[in-house]
Amino acid sequence: MAAGVARAQKHAPWILLSPSLVTIGFLLIIPMMFIVVYSFWLRTATGADQVGFYLDNWQEVLSDRFYRDILLQTLKIAFFTTIICAVVGYIPAYFVANTKMRSKTFLLIMLMLPFWISYIIRTMSWINILGTSGAINGLLLWVGIIDSPLNMLYNQTTVILGLVHYLLPFMILNVYVSLEGIDKNLTEAAESLGCNGFQAFREVTLPLSFPGLAAGSLLCFVLASGTYITPLILGGPRDAMFANLVFEAIITQLNWPLGSALSLVLLVLLGALVVIYTRYLGVDQIAKSFR
Amino acid sequence: MAERQHAVELRNVVKRYGEFTAVKKMDLTVPENSFVTFLGPSGCGKTTTLRMIAGLTDITEGDLVIRDRRVNDLPIHKRNLGLVFQNYALFPHKTIFDNIAFGLKYRNVNKADIAQKVKSALDLVQLPHVADRYPNQLSGGQQQRIALARAIVIEPDVLLLDEPLSALDANLREEMRVELKRIQRELGVATIFVTHDQSEALAMSDKLVVMKDGIVEQEGQPEDVYNNPSSAFVADFLGHSNIFAGTLAEPSGETAPVQLEGGTTLKTTIHQIERVNRQQNIRAVIRAEKIMVSTNQNPTSNDSTSIPGRIKTVDYLGQMARYFITAEGQDWQVINPIDQHPFGEGADIFMHIPARNCVLLPGHHD
Ligand SMILES: Nc1ncnc2c1ncn2[C@@H]1O[C@H](COP(=O)(O)OP(=O)(O)OP(=O)(O)O)[C@@H](O)[C@H]1O
Ligand SMILES: [Mg+2]
């Protein structure tokens, strides 16, 4: 009897978890298995995939400097995007969390508004702003500061700009949530003990919002690393990111085995990053202090 | 330096939130070394007043003076006040040591002195061994002690506490109340304590300030306020009172008869008549525990009144019983110590009311 209850209790978590496990299994694990299997096939000159266990794709991906350079460039772009998002996103998040306006919900909806417009359209809007016949060039020409339009588009800076534009709401929302959870009495206590406003921010608000900042940064970094649309629309020929290579291999060259190997490289790298990040930056450790 | 009398002085302080006036023309003094309690029902402006003194809320009108200095425009971090919150508000990401050391760090105290002061603060609140822990590793009562230690270690001019005990359970609360009072005496720091628990207020204060709707209803020593309420509100709010409208007749000797509306006649003292300026229409306030119930008809002394009545309901409170009594058509309540057994429901008894326990208030208004 007691043993039966104990066994039922032991199984209960698995039973409760089963819907998510099944979903994750079918939608994530199994497709990923296909990709893993694909990466060991070989594309032949005839265009047909040769089934088998070949290491050719992996050898190419891991030894070719071209792939390594693009990977490093991808990480660099993602890194700068994340830093800019963190710095630029913190300010509106702080404002929304601390505003005395009654329209907090309205401000939050305004933050979500960009999500209602396609990401591609939002990215393309920069062409109308920065392009040779875009708004800024038009204005500068009209005022007479310049004689011929500037070339501002299609470089790494515009790629980062586009990514910041795309990812900022994720950062803001993450930071906002953690700022919102900070007891206002804490800053008041700090001020009563002798801090001015900025010191109280540095001593209390900033460290306590760190979990949100860390989560937002991770999200921004991972999403930026995996993007291919932004460099496609706003980057020049030399600004390709790693996901562009996957896109190129699979969609353009129809080389699924190579594309699979490439995408697994990115997956493993970002997966490792997430693990290291949560482990050593102690994100969950900090989260505990809120309980 | 001239002798200073008041740690805090409020002169005609007003606080408005838009159209709404939360605090109306508040005049108040907090003497040095004293323990002052703000007591009043929810929403009467206790927190607002405290926050104005702390500098967390700005003052609409009037002057706030702390230690002979007008501080209306002085930001909070320059006021040197100790603040204790209801929810403790300890910094969750700092150790207990760093929490207590926080204010000292911003006062440029050197490291050795900080360590020594933190240690003596921890000793004072009787938690000498928790310096290395984090706040979430302490119980609620312990956290409140640390919050207190953090506030007093900076040697504040005034200690401000907003319902610091209300998050604690009943036993701990009583223990902390004794503790808090001990620490306050030991340090001699002027303290303002906000509560809506009257037993806390009566037990702890040197000066009790009863507030209602943004004004001070009455202030004074707790005993004074309790025994001589200046309004029906105070009489009703502090403890349990019987309040009846009535008229005053001519005094004879040391006492005078009061005719209550229901027809009952009580005796009161000359002193009370003076308090209402010999007005005709008055209200009589008789505290529930200042009436003696017995089966004996004879008055306990010749200046007391005996009224026959019948017990309707009994609330058994342990050492005390609360009786709801009908006497001469009026409803009364009486709280008496129990001698072996409480009187039963339906028992015929006599209420004995000494003249000095019949407190008079002016009639009508408020
Ligand atoms: N920021 C604000 N804006 C508008 N009205 C406010 C604000 N803060 C307080 N009030 C109002 O001022 C009045 C006094 O509030 P206060 O918090 O001082 O009451 P309190 O005596 O501390 O009550 P409690 O015992 O419930 O804590 C209340 O009616 C409250 O609604
Ligand atoms: Mg309050």
Automatic annotation (TrEMBL), chain A:
Subcellular location: Cell membrane
Primary location: membrane
Membrane-related topology note: Multi-pass membrane protein
GO BP term, example: transmembrane transport
Keywords: Cell membrane, Membrane, Transmembrane, Transmembrane helix, Transport
Record-annotated membrane-spanning stretches: 12-41, 77-97, 104-121, 127-146, 158-177, 213-234, 264-282
Keyword Cell membrane: yes
Cited Pfam families: BPD_transp_1 (PF00528)
Residues annotated as signal peptide: none
InterPro entries from the UniProt entry: MetI-like (IPR000515), MetI-like_sf (IPR035906)
Gene Ontology cellular component terms for the protein in this record: plasma membrane
Domain ABC transmembrane type-1: from-to ranges: 71-277
Family to which the UniProt record says this protein belongs: Belongs to the binding-protein-dependent transport system permease family. CysTW subfamily.
Protein name: ABC transporter permease
Native species: Thalassospira profundimaris
From TrEMBL, chain B:
Keyword ATP-binding: yes
Gene Ontology CC: one annotated term: ATP-binding cassette (ABC) transporter complex
Keyword annotations: ATP-binding, Nucleotide-binding, Transport
InterPro entries with a match to the protein in the record: AAA+_ATPase, ABC_SmlMolc_Importer, ABC_transporter-like_ATP-bd, ABC_transporter-like_CS, Mo/tungstate-bd_C_term_dom, P-loop_NTPase, Transp-assoc_OB_typ2
Pfam family for this entry, one: TOBE_2
Tagged with keyword Nucleotide-binding: yes
MF terms in GO: ABC-type transporter activity; ATP binding; ATP hydrolysis activity
Stretches assigned to the ABC transporter domain: 8-238
Family statement: Belongs to the ABC transporter superfamily.
The protein's name: ABC transporter ATP-binding protein
The species this protein was found in: Thalassospira profundimaris
